[in-house]
Design goal:
single chain, mainly alpha, five-stranded parallel beta sheet, two-stranded antiparallel ribbon, P-loop_NTPase, Sig_transdc_resp-reg_C-effctor
């Protein structure tokens, strides 16, 4: 706190100022970051920010602040931060330009994805900071509108190697993992010095001590409370019976000062409190509307409650709150009505909001104005703001049918903003409206989508099924889309849902008339429902057409983002690894390009699964880390399939067992049966790799028993055959092979034929086994599934050793061992090493260590650079700035002793140990 009327000596904040100086030096040196200044109202956060801004030598400083009355208007604070730099918008990538321009109403188009918008803000601020170090200071962050809060906290978490700093001050909670500076009360000496500066009469030092103690060192309390105390009060202190928290006492003090002012002055203060922009011209126009003259400001300014110049500035946000709460509702409405009347057409949202605040009971004009504001907010991607506008619009609507429609639109906006409980409350209001089949169907669909978003399965299926049936008589095309959603929900729930639901959904969907011009999603629905109702032979040709349609067609945005994972599922059912690769990559790139982070974890897991089967564990790890980052930002995501798969394929027993146990508990709690089956398959792989065949058999039997997740069941059957053969359960192996062949025969792909051949070889003897192993190798080597190829080399080598053909066995086992080491599949590598030693070729224990000395972020940057992505492309895909990419890439080159991206790509492609790595005995 700076002493009034004295040089800028900042009392009691030496440690905090020293921390800021160190932080500022780091930012200037290109190690950007964020600070959060926490403390109760009046503790000196704003004064501390002022001090920080005044001492930030060499920086450009941008100030912004949240305002309680504007906490639901879209992107208001974000615009304050970005407005000075919008002239450089054209230097951002196109999608980022579009997102920012749409959010700020600079151009029309599709609503921006909220995470693409956040990435655009990061890019804009990073480019600005590259020209001159930049600090953005955001006061009263507890009043940030949701869109601004999300974008700015995203930036705060993603700042890296750039001279960019963000400072937030908030009286609320912290901002999740950011460095915090907690301001507490001043110490006794500093508190006394500040109190003496505010007292206008001499008093005993004992009383000074008591007042300072009662104020708990709160600077605003020390400055403001003595102003409202009587002489007796000053003499006695604040009084022993006053137990209210200090901020409440300060606000009470401000309220009492307001109530002593003349009526016209109180009304002028109320208008100023109700108008958050601080536009003095607007204030005076509204005042004139109420018959208030300029002299009304004199008393308020003399009392130090506010100042009116070009802008209206309150002494403290608590003054604004005290004024608004002190005045009766009728006068508040009058103030808002006057403000609505004088707010110009260029500010339709503020005008609509003021009109709504002035309304009593129902008011269709005000409700319609709010609905218009909601449409504008949605066009800018402001889902939370749109929801707030619509929710208030509902409250002002008298007509029951119109009220129900607005409640449905408000619920949809709440759902898009992630406010699921509020959305469900509004849907209950929707359902109380007059009977309307279209509205009822949409209400039920939204309720099912919320259930699916919350649980990735669970109770969503019956609700979505009911919605699909409602749409049958309304819109057949929409009904097919909803049936596909219901089928996806049923598959996600798997055995943890009602397994009969999958059949019920499929049978109901089959009764729909065929689409005259089938879309890719129509073909997918037909293929999946045929598989469930009629069987694989009839389904495979239709599934093949569906997968081909998805690979070849120009898809609508919704199809590309939401259905490609299900198309990948179709490709896996067809044993078509190339289609899986193409579709999964396409969905992942689409999510990255559009910033669709809510879907990206699913897309990353789908693509990473193929990386695992291909022995590309580094690439899978990169996607797992990206998905984990996104999940931490969005707060929701699927069971961590890739993390579990990585631990299993790496053969890290303790890590894998713990990951499977945790993920199993989570999937059971969420009702996500598909994840449970995947985890059981993963357990079978882990145990087979470590030659724990009894445990592998148990895990594979559990996974193979789930017919609702057929693609994972197919993989589990192969693990079951190996484990059953090794444990002498011939009957189980024979039955599993028959089941497996029912899935591979209609498909005839290299993956299907190679898998079938290697499983048959496990059950065969003599020359037949050898022919089958060679067939399996020949077919699988035509695919990209290198981990599967390595496992066949291992199985073939083990068979040759048992046949006492040691020289040939060593050749196969050597190839398997080298491949597993290169992939980082250490469990299988150890199994191959032991077999190789038993075949007469002792070898050192080797473990792939490529990239271990890199941080996770460096590995991800290295992987993308090796794929040929430019620095801006890497930045976009990893949600960081281009300068941070450059920083990490320089460290990667230095650590791996390479000088070009070509060398880096070769190192990654070959999977060789890092330079200087040696085999360990």
């Amino acid at each position: 706190m700076v002493l009034p009327g004295r040089p800028a000596v900042f009392l009691g904040r030496r440690a905090e100022c020293a921390l800021f100086d160190r932080w500022q030096d780091a930012v200037k040196a290109g190690r950007g970051g964020a600070l959060v200044v926490l403390g109760e109202p009046g503790i000196g956060k704003s004064a501390f920010l002022d001090h920080m801004a005044s001492t930030a030598v060499g920086f450009r400083v941008v100030r912004a602040a949240g305002v309680e009355a504007e906490a639901e208007l879209p992107f208001g604070v974000l615009h304050q931060v970005c407005a000075p730099f919008l002239a450089t918008l054209e230097h951002l990538p196109g999608p980022q330009q579009d997102a920012l321009a749409a959010a700020f109403g600079l151009r029309t188009g599709a609503p921006p994805d909220r995470f693409m918008l956040s990435l655009a803000v990061l890019g804009l601020l990073s480019k600005t900071a590259a020209r001159q170090p930049l600090i953005c200071v955001i006061d009263d962050a507890q009043w940030l509108d949701p869109g601004s809060a999300q974008a700015l906290t995203f930036v705060a978490h993603r700042i890296g190697a750039e001279p960019l700093g963000l400072v937030f001050a908030t009286a609320g909670d912290g901002l999740g993992g950011l460095q915090e500076v907690v301001l507490t009360g001043l110490g006794p000496g500093d508190a006394r010095a500040l109190l003496h500066s505010a007292l206008h009469v001499p008093i005993d030092e004992e009383v000074v001590e008591r007042i300072a103690a009662e104020a708990r060192g709160n600077p605003l309390a020390l400055l403001e409370l003595p102003r409202t105390m009587t002489a007796a009060g000053v003499a006695c202190g604040f009084g022993p019976t006053d137990t209210k928290a200090v901020p409440g006492r300060i606000e009470d003090s401000f309220r009492s000062r307001v109530l002593r002012l003349p009526p016209a002055t109180r009304m002028l203060l109320l208008v100023a409190a109700a108008e958050p922009t601080g536009d003095s011209a607007l204030l005076w126009r509204a005042a004139a509307r109420l018959g208030i003259g300029g002299s009304a400001a004199t008393a308020a300014e003399a009392d130090g409650l506010l100042s009116i110049g070009t802008q209206v500035v309150f002494r403290h946000p608590l003054v604004r709150s005290a004024v608004y709460q002190a005045m009766p509702p009728s006068q508040r409405r009058a103030a808002h009505r006057a403000l609505a009347d004088v707010t110009g057409p260029s500010e339709p949202d503020r005008r609509a909001w003021h009109r709504a605040q002035a309304a009593v009971g129902s008011d269709e004009e005000a409700a319609a104005g709010l609905e218009g504001s909601a449409h504008r907010a949605l066009a800018r991607g402001g889902f939370a703001a749109a929801a707030a506008f619509l929710e208030r619009s509902v409250a002002l609507t008298a007509d029951p049918a119109v009220r129900a429609e607005r409640a449905l639109r408000a619920a949809r906006a709440k759902q898009q903003a992630g406010a699921y409980d509020s959305a469900l409350d509004l849907l209950a209001l929707t359902d109380r409206g007059p009977e309307n089949e279209v509205r009822a169907a949409n209400s039920e669909l939204l309720r099912g989508q919320i259930a699916l978003a919350r649980s990735f399965g669970g109770g969503a299926t019956p609700v979505l099924l009911s919605a699909a049936r409602r749409f049958e008589s309304i819109d057949a095309s929409r009904a097919r889309d909803v049936y596909l959603q219901a089928l996806a929900a049923a598959m996600l729930a798997g055995r943890l849902g009602d397994e009969c639901r999958i059949v019920e959904v499929a049978q109901s969907a089959r009764r729909l008339p065929a689409a005259s011009v089938p879309r890719a999603s129509d073909l997918l629905l037909d293929g999946l429902t045929l598989l469930i109702v009629e069987g694989r032979d009839l389904a495979v040709p239709v599934l093949r057409k569906a997968v081909s349609a998805f690979t070849a067609a120009e898809l609508a945005l919704e199809e590309e983002l939401y259905w490609l994972w299900l198309a990948c599922h179709g490709a896996m059912l067809l044993w078509d690894d190339e289609a899986w690769r193409l579709l999964a990559t396409r969905q992942l790139r689409s999510c990255e390009a559009r910033g669709a982070l809510s879907i990206l974890p699913v897309a990353a897991a789908t693509r990473a699964g193929l990386h695992l089967l291909s022995g590309e564990l580094l690439q899978a790890a990169s996607l797992a880390e990206t998905a984990a980052d996104v999940t931490s930002m969005t707060g929701a995501g699927p069971v961590p399939y890739t993390e579990v798969g990585l631990a299993v394929f790496r053969g890290r027993d303790d890590e894998a067992v713990a990951a499977i146990r945790t993920a199993t508990r989570d999937s059971m709690a969420r009702g996500e049966g598909m994840a449970l089956t995947y985890l059981q398959w993963a357990g079978a792989v882990l145990h087979n790799g470590a030659c724990r065949y009894e445990q592998a058999l148990e895990s594979a039997r559990l996974a193979g028993a789930d017919s609702s997740v057929q693609r994972v069941r197919n993989w589990a059957l192969a693990e079951l055959i190996e484990a059953a053969v090794r444990t002498g359960h011939q009957d189980l192996a024979d039955e599993a092979l028959r089941e497996l062949c029912r899935t591979t025969k209609p498909c005839s792909s290299d993956w299907a034929a190679g898998t079938e051949a290697h499983c048959r070889a496990l059950l065969a003897a003599g020359p037949d086994a050898e022919d089958l192993y060679r067939t399996a190798l020949g077919r699988l080597e035509r695919t990209g599934l290198r981990a599967a190829v390595a496992r066949v080399h291992l199985l073939y080598g083990e068979w040759l050793r048992r046949e006492r053909r040691h020289l040939e066995a060593r050749d196969q086992l050597r190839q398997a061992h080298e491949m597993f080491v290169r992939f980082g599949m250490d469990g299988f590598a150890e199994r191959a090493r032991n077999e190789l030693s038993a075949a007469g070729e002792p070898t050192r224990k080797r473990r792939s260590r490529f990239g271990e000395q890199l941080t996770p972020q460096e590995r991800r940057v290295a992987m993308l650079a090796a794929e040929g992505a430019t620095n801006p492309e890497i930045a976009s895909r990893l949600f960081i700035s281009a300068s941070t990419v450059d920083y990490h890439l320089r460290k990667v080159f230095r650590k791996l002793k390479v000088t070009t991206r070509t060398q880096l790509a070769r190192l990654l492609q070959d999977g060789q140990p890092i330079p200087g790595d040696a085999d360990r005995p």
